[in-house]
Amino acid sequence: MASIDDLIGKLDDAKVDSTNMGEHPHFSKFKNASQAAERQAQRRREFMDRQREARQDQFMRYRRLIEAKDDEVDDDAEMASEGSNAIEQPLDLTTTSARTRDIGKKNLKYADQLMLSEWLIDIPDYEQLSADWYMLPTPKGKHVLVVASRGITSTYDKRGKMMNQFESELPGGCRKNKGKRGNFTILDCILVQGHKYYCLDIISWGGNMMTDNPFDFRRFMLNSKLEDTPELQTPNRHMRKQFIPLPMCKCEKKQMEEMMKTDFLFELDGLLFYHQSVFYESGQNPLVGWLKPWMMPELLDIQVPQRYNKDNPANQTSREFINAFNLAHNHRSLSQKKQYEENESIVDMVEVQKEDNEE
């Protein structure tokens, strides 16, 4: 068995990278910048390899979500028929009682299903960034999972709490287009003002699962489906919710600067950066990055309109802001979580060694 000194030495080595992510090359005053950036790049490569192996697991994960939703709707139908003399009357999930019964309740089946970003600090070199990554401006709002199945559309937050139920023109989302049991749609959206759903990503459309397709293909399919269903973007007195595609550009300097000059129809919260090959996988993902608009000049050398500087009233650097944010929200990146687990494992080994020596 290794000596206590060896184990403690490993523990000291494991504590080197205590920041949220590896250091960005712009922060040259930090002596481990290049090593940390390489660790982040290596972690991205490992994640891409792992996602290929896990694609079937992700496919089944979201299939089970729909099976759960179908069972819930079947239970509603059974309860409605048992409590009514008119047994042959169709179930109307648009009634107030049926629609609001579970709103505000948490359902763990729908918790932790969204794909989440990391702070984009360890940025790929420009050639790789411009070739492999896309940027999406993202509105201020609520990150939600939208599930349309068996004639009703449900919205869940990332913790699985149901926020709303309504009819929509999404496949499976209203009585007229609910179709057969396998006709369902799942979208990743930002909810704004209670009725505008800005679409980030597509998980399934009309029963066709898309989790194991690369991001650029999923976005093509999402935009195509929304274009083919214009009524989704035009509310009426029966369908009051809107499903709106978000603009997107390649991470090329000119395209990003032009995008940042846009007068968006929403209040800009930040920028999401997707690697073109990332599959849709629940949880925090190193292939999906996040920056605030005012961070763009410092980290990407992308100029932005002066109005975005108001979001940094303390005039912090990106690193200072991110560290303060992570501390305030008790947030760890995947790399930090992995490092923490390794540290805990080494501590356990040291304790075992001490106990053996005492005996």
Automatic annotation (TrEMBL):
Task: Provide the alphabetized UniProt keywords.
Answer: Cytoplasm, Nucleus, RNA-binding, Transport
Family in the record: Belongs to the snurportin family.
Q: Where is the Snurportin-1 m3G cap-binding domain?
A: 113-293
| GO annotation, cellular component aspect | cytoplasm; nucleus
Q: Which superkingdom does the taxonomy of this entry point to?
A: Eukaryota
Q: Which CDD domains match?
A: Snurportin-1_C
Cellular localization per UniProt: Cytoplasm; Nucleus
Q: Which Gene3D superfamilies match?
A: DNA ligase/mRNA capping enzyme
Protein name as catalogued:
Snurportin-1
For this chain's UniProt record, which GO biological process terms are given? Answer: snRNA import into nucleus
Q: Where is the Snurportin-1 N-terminal domain?
A: 24-64
Region described as Disordered: 16-42
The species this protein belongs to is Diploscapter pachys
| GO MF annotations in UniProt | RNA binding
Taken from the record, one Pfam family name reads: SPN1_m3Gcap_bd
